[in-house]
Write a structure and sequence with these properties.
- The chain has 378 residues and is α+β, with helices and mostly antiparallel strands.
- Helices cover 34% and strands 21% of the residues.
- It has twelve helices and 13 strands.
- It is globular.
- The structure holds octanoyl-coenzyme A.
- The site of octanoyl-coenzyme A (CO8) has 30 residues, from helix 3 and helix 9.
């Protein structure tokens, strides 16, 4: 058995951002139009009036202030309320593959490697833009990787931690020397921008990580090497976060409303269920390695909700962590599903010292949760 390590990461952010104020202005204009157009039905009680959103609520309930999106105009256009993305032909690179290239190359470069050193590609995300061929195989081809294998996996917000675990398993067993694990999250395309309960939650981004045999990474001495001590994965079925979009939709006898084919959740229930589940998972995982929360220099937590992270850390640490202990990126990025904890790690790990221990942690739909304990080895 070999030891596996994270030897490089990369991050792609779209050029466009939407501030809470811009988002709220669009939703409130949509709400006003809807309520005016449906005034008679609302008056008669057959249609429910929509309520406006507010920046104050969003910041207080989530900590989110802004988000990156692939297309801003479509989202803010109250006649559309969805990103406007180009339809690409089968002979053109697909959008998720395209957004994967830059962070993939950056991660490979950060590790001091060449593309040809990679043995396999895992594309792990909440949504793939098509069923097949696999996005990962298209990414493999777009990178010019002739050898090796690639596959897609989806564990919603925990796709990246589960992906790190799958990559580490391949490396530990000797099946591969280096795996590229990529998370192209286009959350804007499956978010209901007309619904004030969730219109503020998500953003688009792509992260990439190189998971490599630790001895090879240390030999090369190219940059920080994070030994993966181990990971713990947990799933528990819940309908509280759900998206019914799928290949059976066109065959379903009853048909579904457009709203049923997008992200929906019972946010309060998620909050209540997931906080104890994740706190317990992290605690037990640390115990397995004879570690306590006090031994952890930094938590790179899933970036869904600032209050949720504070509650989880409070249960694990016994107090609310400061920004140095649990960095927050969701104010800038919003929830980017599986990519959130990888962004936090990418942005906030270089300052740690050799010997420092950290935990990457994700949680989300499924429910699914993953915790990866890493230790800086170089
Ligand atoms: N503006 C003003 N008021 C609002 C707004 C708004 N935008 N939205 C809701 N309100 C109102 C509500 O109507 C409610 O009013 P009342 O008290 O009169 O009923 C009040 O504010 C409080 O509403 P909530 O109880 O819903 O507010 P919370 O404090 O619970 O905050 C959150 C809502 C932020 C959604 C919070 O519950 C939360 O973050 N929960 C956890 C969610 C979470 O982590 N989910 C994980 C989802 S991510 C995932 O799994 C990946 C899925 C795949 C990606 C999908 C991409 C699209």
């Amino acid at each position: 058995m070999y030891s596996a390590a994270i030897s490089g990461t990369g991050l792609f952010t779209p050029e466009s951002t939407i501030s809470n104020d811009e988002l709220v202005a669009a939703l409130n204009a949509f709400v006003e139009k809807f309520n005016t157009e449906n005034a008679a039905e609302i008056e008669a009680g057959t249609v429910e009036a929509l309520a406006p959103s507010s920046n104050e609520f969003i910041v207080k309930a989530s900590g989110i202030k802004s988000r990156y999106v692939l297309d801003k105009t479509g989202v803010l256009d109250i006649e559309r309320m969805a990103p406007s993305l180009p339809t690409r032909g089968d002979d053109e690179i697909s959008i998720q593959a395209e957004m994967a290239i830059q962070p993939a190359l950056d991660a490979i470069k950060a590790a001091g490697l060449d593309v040809s050193d990679i043995d396999g590609v895992i594309c792990a995300a909440s949504n793939m833009q098509r069923a097949y061929p696999a996005m990962s195989i298209e990414i493999q081809a777009a990178l010019g990787l002739e050898a090796g294998w690639a596959f897609d996996m989806n564990v919603a917000c925990s796709s990246a931690t589960f992906g790190i675990d799958m990559a580490a398993a391949a490396v530990r067993s000797g099946q591969a020397k280096r795996i590229l694990m990529i998370n192209p999250e286009i959350c804007s395309a499956h978010l209901n921008w007309e619904n004030r309960d969730c219109h503020f939650i998500f953003g688009d981004v792509c992260t990439a990580s190189v998971i490599e045999r630790e001895d090879l990474a240390l030999e090369r001495n190219a940059g920080p090497v994070w030994s993966i001590l181990g990971s713990r994965l947990r799933t528990q079925f819940s309908n509280n976060i759900r998206n019914n979009f799928g290949f059976l939709n066109r065959s379903e006898a009853e048909g579904r409303s457009e709203w049923d084919l997008m992200f929906k959740q019972e946010g309060r229930k998620v909050f209540k269920d997931v906080v104890p589940m994740v706190a317990k998972m992290i605690g037990e995982h640390l115990e397995e390695y004879d570690l306590t929360a006090a031994d952890v220099r930094r938590f790179w937590l899933h970036q869904a909700n600032k209050n949720m992270n504070d509650f989880i850390a409070q249960k694990v640490l016994g107090r609310v962590p400061n920004e140095d202990e649990a960095p927050v990126v969701l104010d800038e990025f919003a929830n980017t599903s599986s990519a959130g904890c990888v962004i936090a790690f990418h942005r906030h790990s270089r300052d740690l010292a050799v010997g420092d221990t950290g935990v990457l942690c994700s949680f989300g739909a499924g429910y699914s949760a993953g915790s990866v304990i890493v230790k800086r080895a170089a």
